[in-house]
């Protein structure tokens, strides 16, 4: 986290502006008046200690995000002024010169002589202690819900921020939090992606920042839960995960959040067993489970290409291998034959450039700007997707909707599926601009479909002869 300027725009119409400030204040006053007979109690307690909880509590928590934000350090910016102004009124919470650092449940290596493993152990031990305590105190009629959003990953050498979020296999924050939950005796019974971040926030501008939280719904694991082998776990994933992933796509979750959202239904399968055993009898680790979930996610996205036309399958495969870079004609010819198409056909369709022994995909800027899907006999899903992205980026949602209306509903839905696949490839390869383009198309999809419906309702139906 780095310091930046305030994101408010008092003269605007979104986020923290003058009109919204008035509206928020009025809503708060109205809520207080309506609920004037109710009261709540706020306590500053350490959940990992044996705090004076009563039995039968309901828990909904937004825990620390591993090493993303050090709130104790952040608090010092405000604490020094508050201690000076109200320290005499609240002597208990203002007794120290600065905000306490060591007890904070965060993986901060600088507090452990830059030892990342020691920081991870501190984080995991604190989480386990907290969740075990909560497990004994919660009301059995209500689940424990955990809000989590995390896009930080590391490789096997502990180099932070080096891999894409699509590689959920090596996400230390997720791995540690899930390990603590499962070790404490919880199973994940449900997951809800919740859109909770504003698209106009500074962090989201021109970046693939997460826009959703994942709510994990957890209950104590029954004592009657059974063991499972790796084969049984993998079979359950292949049977159940695609259904959950289709539901997420139909719910229009952003591609940037898709890999994170897949963790939930995948881990709900893993956590239903008392243990998942490897072939040698060792328990499968959470990290290995995440790797397996990631493999099935990639398989699901790849399998969607199987229902697409041959030109699209070629373009997707070429994009995954070479991006927009040029390669020899021989490379293209071999791949085209494997996908049951021809280089000449792809050139004729206007998606491929081939000259002087070199072949490459055409960028969106090079595509036919006057392309009309109503007169294009082939209308490959690749071309439709690229043209929709081009229209959205250069002309906005209204023109994009006009194009989507001409393409038709069935092909339009296929373009959204391809956008998820191309986003996954772009994010994994580090092609930020490409990833942002495909993510933007899916995010804008509900608004585009609304405009398509408006166009359809205002367009008169022209009957043809003999209809």
Task: Identify the notable features of this structure and list them briefly.
467 residues; alpha/beta; 3 domains; four-stranded mixed β-sheet; three-stranded antiparallel β-sheet; 15 helices; 49% helix; globular; disordered C terminus
Q: Any overview of this molecule?
A:
- The protein contains 15 helices and nine strands.
- It has 467 residues and is an alpha/beta fold.
- It folds into three domains: 1-41, no CATH class; 55-70 and 106-304, no CATH class; 310-458, no CATH class.
- The protein has a four-stranded mixed β-sheet with strand order 1-2-4-3, with helices on one face. A three-stranded antiparallel β-sheet has the order 7-9-8.
- Strand 8 and strand 9 form a beta hairpin.
- Helix 11 (381-395) packs antiparallel against helix 12 (397-407).
Distance between the termini: 64 Å
Assign a percent range to the helix content: 40-55%
- The run of helices and strands is HEHHEHEEEHHEHHEHHEEHHHHH
Spatial strand sequence of the major β-sheet? 1-2-4-3
- Rounded to an integer, what's the Rg over CA atoms? 26 Å
Form type = globular
What order do the helices and strands come in, and which of them pair?
Blueprint: H1 18-34, E1 60-61, H2 71-86, H3 116-137, E2 144-148, H4 172-183, E3 186-195, E4 212-220, E5 227-229, H5 230-250, H6 255-270, E6 275-277, H7 286-305, H8 310-322, E7 327-328, H9 329-338, H10 343-349, E8 352-355, E9 358-361, H11 381-395, H12 397-407, H13 409-429, H14 432-443, H15 445-458
Parallel strand pairs: 1-2, 5-6
Antiparallel strand pairs: 2-4, 3-4, 7-9, 8-9
């Amino acid at each position: 986290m780095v310091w930046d300027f305030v994101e408010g725009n008092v003269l605007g119409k979104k986020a923290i502006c003058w009109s919204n400030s008035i509206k928020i204040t009025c809503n708060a006053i109205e809520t207080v008046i309506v609920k004037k007979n109710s009261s709540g109690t706020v306590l500053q307690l350490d959940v990992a200690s044996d705090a004076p909880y009563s039995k039968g509590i309901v828990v909904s928590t937004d825990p620390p995000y591993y090493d993303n934000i050090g709130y104790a350090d952040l608090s010092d910016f405000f604490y020094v002024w508050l201690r000076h102004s109200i320290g005499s009124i609240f002597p208990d919470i203002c007794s120290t010169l600065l905000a306490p650092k060591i007890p904070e449940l965060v993986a901060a290596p600088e507090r452990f002589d830059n030892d990342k493993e020691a920081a991870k152990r501190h984080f995991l031990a604190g989480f386990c202690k907290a969740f075990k305590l909560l497990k004994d105190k919660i009301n059995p009629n209500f689940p424990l819900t955990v809000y989590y959003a995390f896009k930080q990953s590391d490789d096997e050498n502990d180099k932070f921020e080096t891999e894409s979020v699509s590689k959920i296999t090596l996400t230390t924050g997720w791995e540690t939090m899930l390990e603590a939950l499962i070790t404490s005796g919880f199973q994940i019974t449900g997951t809800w992606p919740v859109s909770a971040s504003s698209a106009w926030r500074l962090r989201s501008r021109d970046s693939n920042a997460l826009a959703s939280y994942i709510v994990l719904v957890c209950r104590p694991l029954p004592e009657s839960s059974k063991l499972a082998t790796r084969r049984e776990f993998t079979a359950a994933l292949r049977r159940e995960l695609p259904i959950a992933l289709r539901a997420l796509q139909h719910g229009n979750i952003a591609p940037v959040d898709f890999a994170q959202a897949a963790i939930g239904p995948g881990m709900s399968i893993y956590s239903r067993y008392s243990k998942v055993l490897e072939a040698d009898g060792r328990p499968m680790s959470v990290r290995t489970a995440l790797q397996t979930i990631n493999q099935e996610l990639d398989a699901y996205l790849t399998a969607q290409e199987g229902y697409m036309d041959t030109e699209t399958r070629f373009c997707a495969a070429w994009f995954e291998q070479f991006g927009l870079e040029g390669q020899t004609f021989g490379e293209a010819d071999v791949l085209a034959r494997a996908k049951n198409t021809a280089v000449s056909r792809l050139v004729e369709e206007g998606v491929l450039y081939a000259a002087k022994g070199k072949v490459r995909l055409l960028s969106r800027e090079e595509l036919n700007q006057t392309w009309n899907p109503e007169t294009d006999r082939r209308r490959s899903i690749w071309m439709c997707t690229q043209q929709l992205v081009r229209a959205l980026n250069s002309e906005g949602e209204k023109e994009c909707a006009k194009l989507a209306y001409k393409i038709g509903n069935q092909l339009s839905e296929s373009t959204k599926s391809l956008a998820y696949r191309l986003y996954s490839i772009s994010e994994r390869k580090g092609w930020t601009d490409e990833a942002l383009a495909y993510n933007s198309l899916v995010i804008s999809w509900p608004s585009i479909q609304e405009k398509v419906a408006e166009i359809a309702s205002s367009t008169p139906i022209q009957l043809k002869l003999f209809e």
